[in-house]
Every structure is written in C-alpha cells, then in structure tokens.
Amino acid sequence: MEKFVALISDMLNKSIAILIVTAVIVIIANLSFAWVISSKVMNFTERIRYEGYLTDEMYTNFLDEMVFDEVMIHITHTKEQKSLDEPLTIFSRKTILDQVFGTNHIYKFEVGDEVVVSVSARLFLMDVYIPQGGLILNEKYH
Amino acid sequence: MRENKTVANTGSAVLTFLGIVIVVAVVGVGFMGYNIITAGGDKLERVNNQVASAEYKQFEEGRKSGDTVISRIEDAETNPSKLSISVTTLRNSTTVYGFSNYEDDSYSGYSEDDPSDTDYINPVGSFESSVTKSNGVVTGLVFEQKN
Lengths: 142, 147
Prior knowledge:
The structure holds two protein chains of two kinds.
Chain A: H1 2-51, E1 53-55, H2 56-65, E2 71-78, E3 90-91, H3 93-100, E4 106-108, E5 114-122, E6 127-135
Antiparallel strand pairs in A: 1-4, 2-3, 2-5, 5-6
Chain B: H1 2-38, H2 41-56, E1 63-65, H3 66-78, E2 84-88, E3 94-97, H4 99-103, E4 126-134, E5 137-145
Parallel strand pairs in B: 2-5
Antiparallel strand pairs in B: 1-4, 2-3, 4-5
C-alpha cells in the first residue's frame, strides 16, 4: 500500500514537472516567433528609412516573410511639417500601395518624413502587435 | 554491481526524456487543435480594432491637408471596416464617404481636379479633423474645410 502511494505521488510530481516544462517550451517558441517576426519588420522598415522609397519587390518580399495564418499590415506615411500652421499630411496604406503596384512600381518618401509599419499577427498561441518606424534618412531614388 | 546501477539509471533517464518529448508533442498537437477549433478570429479583430483606434488618435484634433482627407477616403472605400468619412467643403456641402458608397453605382464621389464641383477636395486645403465614436470605438472621421 505504501509503495502504491509513493508510486502515485511520484507520478503526480512527474506530470506536474512535465506540464511546467511544456508551458515553458510553448512560451519560448512563441517568444522566438515574435522575435523573428519583429526582426523582419525592422529590416523592412530600416530599408525604407535608409533608401527613402518602397518598391513592389520590397513589399512582396516582405509579404513572403510573413508566413502566419492571420496577419495585418498597416503602413502610414506622415509628411514633415515645415511650419506649425501647415496642415498635417498623412498618407494611408491604400494610397501607398496604389503607387507601389502602379505603373512606376515605386513610392517615394522625402527626408524628414515619418514612416510607420505595424504588423499584427496570430502566432502559435498568442497575438502580437509589432510597430516599427522612424524618420526617412535618404532619398536614394534620384 | 555498481556499473549495473549506472546502466539502469541511464535507461530510466532516457525513458523519462522520451516521456517528456511524447507529452510535449501530444500537448502541442492538442493546443494546435484547440486553436483551429476556436479559431479566435474575433480576438485578432479586437487587437486590430485597438490598433486602429490608436491610429485614429492623430485625427482627434488639428488641421489636416486635403491629401490626407483623400487618402483616408480611398482607404475607407476599399476597407470593409465600416468607417465613414464625413467631409464638409468650403461650399457648405457635407458628403459622407465609405465602403458602402464604393459598391453603389450611382455614387459619383469627390472631385480632385474640378474646383467648381461642390464636393471638390483641394489637396493643399486645410481641414479641421475630429472623430466620431460609438461605445468607445471609432466609427468615423469628420473633416471640415477651413481654407
């Protein structure tokens, strides 16, 4: 009888340990996924910032990297305000993508403008929201 | 005798490890199945709504250019998020644009290049922006032309 009780408690201990290990593995897997996706978003945004433009090739390559079931990508382009009484100009995703996939295959930014790329995606067990962006540093399309 | 014990310990370690791997695999597949069954699309939608609300923060006040207004209308027309864009021009004409208009054949839309049109949106004009909310969710953007 004592042996039996000892066996049962040993099994319980083991299964609890296994559950904890599983939870840790799942969390680590999700975090590494999130890390991979955020580094891809950062590469994409940094390239736009350093080159000052977005081409259809850059965008489709970026889409190919977003290999998740559900993913939503927002891009906004805010023009630099040269003076305070100047109205703010914000271009949304549709306007940008229309030009990217239009006849010129390119969307141009200007130095000082701000670009924000935000991605929300569903990973293995959680939803992540990754905003990346910054000021445009170059105009390499000249 | 001692060597035998080591061998037995190694065996049980391998067995425990195998057990852990199998349990992890089973639990993993179980979680995956759970994810597929519940397919919590509504959850991602909720996240996206919050993201969108944050995005509309910059429209709560301040002057925006006509280019911004046009870009927002283009976005709303092709995005089934049910966002309505209300634009009042200097000629006191208020028109509401949105996804429902896009499918309406009789809808003529705004004008970008004909200043005599009452719904002419001057790309360099200045528009005062605000947002309309329903139960805390942004349902529309309001632009009123100032000059």
